[in-house]
Amino acid sequence: MSEKKRIIMERIVEIKDSNDDWNIKFWQKCGARSRFAAAWEMTVEFCKIRGKNGIKPRLQRDAEHIKRV
Fold first, then answer.
1. What's the pLDDT at 6?
2. What are the CA-CA distances from residue 27 to residues 6, 15, 47 (Å)?
């Protein structure tokens, strides 16, 4: 089993000086797998908050057919 590389970043700023630059740099440094894992973890937590067990959450699947006339 491969060992996960742990990334720790922090900053302290006044709210008036806060912007999204730090968050963007953090998530870019984490990589796509970490971003997807974090998004999925939030999806499971959301399901649990809504009263579902969160064991097997599903993505919304909507389909439409658009015909050009």
1. 73
2. 13, 20, 24
Which phi and psi angles does 10 have, rounded to 5°? -150, 160
What number of helices (H) and strands (E) belong to the chain?
A: 2, 0
Q: Residue ranges per domain, the chain?
A: 31-60
Residue type, 21: D
Cβ neighbors of 48 (< 8 A, separation 6 or more) are 54
- H-helix or E-strand containing 31? none
How confident is residue 1, by pLDDT bands cut at 50, 70 and 90? very low
Nearest C-alpha neighbor of 44 from the set 57, 60, 59? 57
Rounded to whole angstroms, how far apart are CA atoms 9 and 54?
29
Q: How far apart are CA 67 and CA 16, in angstroms?
A: 49
